């Protein structure tokens, strides 16, 4: 039986709008663990992490990085736990919390897979690129620096301290559903040649073509895929419970197709669910939608399909 390890990270100081610390509880209440068990997985819930101020934090906090010390503590403990969960052989699902969570979760996963001799690719399902640094940010909110940190950009070099940093190459990052990028952030993304499937590309080519391209790329390089799912990737009409809504996001059906195709690929080794803010939600609607999408990622289907997702059968 395949194993899933669930770990909550109730962190919310990386965003401008507080409240994502309630995200892990909302996802559990919406039935995430029950659904995964119904799909045939052995699910172990490791509860929610807690941090304290006893760690050696001797580096100087960078400028333009709000709540750096608190996020530093979270990142270190999350990276350690992520690494250990990856080594256990389970598929980790990290429940957030804001997107600074990924600075720890993805670093730990990347460290594990680098030691195993495989590349970790990261699918960033998000309205925002999150590729700012302290030098480019307009807000100083660290959830907007997560992807840049994971790709080894400078400015937050002391964040992990003695925890090994395992940066991925910008070529291993895939931004998907992006529709809000700052000017200096855009320049940096262009310089690093990061792959971006923005909403224009999705409208023009469809999510099926674009996700198939990613799957083929990861498979050709014997890679493993981490899905970092920010619920503001979805259109606000589908998922209102986020602090940074941007109009024109993915539809309910587009999101399910993405998750179904990722499941069919067999390449997903870990997942983040971030930026769910129950304080802003409408009677749990966003939490339930997120749980349904994770169900599709792990094999739930409306109907059993006898053909792969890239095949077309004629109507009879």
Give an account of the 3D structure.
This protein is of the alpha/beta class. The chain has a single domain (3-297), classed as 3-Layer(aba) Sandwich (Arginase, Chain A), CATH 3.40.800. The chain contains 10 helices and 8 strands. The chain has helices at 23-29, 32-38, 68-87, 101-115, 146-150, 183-192, 199-205, 207-220, 252-265, 285-297; strands at 3-9, 42-48, 91-96, 120-125, 173-178, 195-198, 224-230, 268-274. An 8-stranded parallel beta sheet has the order 2-1-3-8-7-4-5-6, with helices on both faces. Strand 5, helix 6 (183-192) and strand 6 (195-198) form a beta-alpha-beta unit. Helix 9 runs parallel beside helix 10. The longest helix has 20 residues, at 68-87. The chain is globular, with a radius of gyration of 18 Å. The model is unreliable at 309-316 (pLDDT under 50).
List keywords for this structure.
316 residues, eight-stranded parallel beta sheet, 35% helix, disordered C terminus, Arginase, Chain A
CATH architecture grouping: 3-Layer(aba) Sandwich
How is the main sheet built? Answer: 8 strands, parallel
Distance, first to last CA: 37 Å
CA radius of gyration is 18 Å
The count of DSSP E runs of length 2 or more, i.e. the number of strands, is 8
In helices, the fraction of residues equals 25-40%
- Give the strand order, joined by hyphens, for the main sheet: 2-1-3-8-7-4-5-6
Please name the fourth-level CATH homologous superfamily.
Ureohydrolase domain
CATH class: Alpha Beta
Count of discrete structural domains: 1
Please indicate the percent range of residues in DSSP E strands (runs of 2 or more): 15-25%
Order of helices and strands: EHHEHEHEHEHEHHEHEH
């Amino acid at each position: 039986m395949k194993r899933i390890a669930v770990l909550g990270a109730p962190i919310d100081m990386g965003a401008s709008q507080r409240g994502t610390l309630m995200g892990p509880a909302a996802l559990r209440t919406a039935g995430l663990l029950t659904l995964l068990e119904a799909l045939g997985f052995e699910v172990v819930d490791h509860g929610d992490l807690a941090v304290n101020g006893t760690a050696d934090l001797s580096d100087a906090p960078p400028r333009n990085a709000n709540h750096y010390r608190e996020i530093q503590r979270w990142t270190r403990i999350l990276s350690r736990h992520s690494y250990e969960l990856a080594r256990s052989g389970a598929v980790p699902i990290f429940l957030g919390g804001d997107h600074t969570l990924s600075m720890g979760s993805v670093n730990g996963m990347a460290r594990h897979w680098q030691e195993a001799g495989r590349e970790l690719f990261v699918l960033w399902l998000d309205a925002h690129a999150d590729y700012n640094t302290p030098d480019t940010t307009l807000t100083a909110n660290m959830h907007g620096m997560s992807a840049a940190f994971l790709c080894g950009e400078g400015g937050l070099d002391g964040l992990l301290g003695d925890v090994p940093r395992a940066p991925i190459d910008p070529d291993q990052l895939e931004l998907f559903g992006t529709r809000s990028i700052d000017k200096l952030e855009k320049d940096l993304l262009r310089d690093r040649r990061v792959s971006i499937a923005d909403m224009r590309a999705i409208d023009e080519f469809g999510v099926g073509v674009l996700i198939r391209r990613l799957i083929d790329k990861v498979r050709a390089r014997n890679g493993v895929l981490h899905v970092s799912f920010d619920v503001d990737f979805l259109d606000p009409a589908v998922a209102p419970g986020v602090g940074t809504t941007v109009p024109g996001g993915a539809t309910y059906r587009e999101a399910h197709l993405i998750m179904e195709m990722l499941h069919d690929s067999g390449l997903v080794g870990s997942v983040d669910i971030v930026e769910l803010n129950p304080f802003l939600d409408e009677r749990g609607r966003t939490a339930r939608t997120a749980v349904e999408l994770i169900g599709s990622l792990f094999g739930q289907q409306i109907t059993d399909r006898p053909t792969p997702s890239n095949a077309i059968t004629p109507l009879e």
